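Field log, afternoon session.

UNIT: design team B
ACTIVITY: writing a sequence onto a fixed backbone
BACKBONE:
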């Protein structure tokens, strides 16, 4: 019974901070160096020992998945936050820029998970509905404000950005996706 209490107990605040920092540093490392980034370097840059990193993330796969989940959570939370704090069109642009950043992370993680565990299928399937819900929320608000035409399908906009990001040249994919986002927004105006 005591073990059940320990497994459901929330982590200590410092342990949660360490975990969050490791995930943040890992995202930057995986983005810069690919999925093979040194876990020891990630621990060092996070200001924790390797033991702390491995206690939170026993495998590279676990850390990659945590980075991916953190990015999906950030996207979902941002749709609500941007809707509260920004005018509709600015909220949409800010969210789409965050989506482009998410795509860069997903691209790295997809390749890594493919080689590590034979595919990211379930991981990506679980997040798809959250991403679709977030984009629908942010687009609906822009449509209601008269900033975006009603006939624009938000998923089509995401597909276009995915295409440019995944199939563009590696150095200019993010810049190309950002330019395309501006074009798509202008073309979607009433």
């Amino acid at each position: 019974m005591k073990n059940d209490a320990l497994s459901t107990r929330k982590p200590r605040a410092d342990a949660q901070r360490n975990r969050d920092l490791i995930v943040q540093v890992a995202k930057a490392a995986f983005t810069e160096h690919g999925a093979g980034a040194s876990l020891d370097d990630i621990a060092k840059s996070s200001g924790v020992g390797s033991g702390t990193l491995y206690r939170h993330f026993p495998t590279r796969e676990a850390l990659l998945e945590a980075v991916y989940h953190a990015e999906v959570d950030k996207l979902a939370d941002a749709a609500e936050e941007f809707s509260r704090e920004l005018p509709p069109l600015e909220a949409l642009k800010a969210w789409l820029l965050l989506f482009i950043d998410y795509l860069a992370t997903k691209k790295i993680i997809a390749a890594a998970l493919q080689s590590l565990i034979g595919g990211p299928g379930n991981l990506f399937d679980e997040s798809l509905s959250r991403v679709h819900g977030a984009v629908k929320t942010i687009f609906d608000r822009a449509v209601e404000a008269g900033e975006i035409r009603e006939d624009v399908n938000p998923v089509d906009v995401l597909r276009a950005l995915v295409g440019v990001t995944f199939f563009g040249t590696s150095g200019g994919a993010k810049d190309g996706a950002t330019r395309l986002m501006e074009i798509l927004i202008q073309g979607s105006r009433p």
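LOG NOTE: The longest helix spans residues 88-117.
NEXT ACTIVITY: expression trials, pending approval
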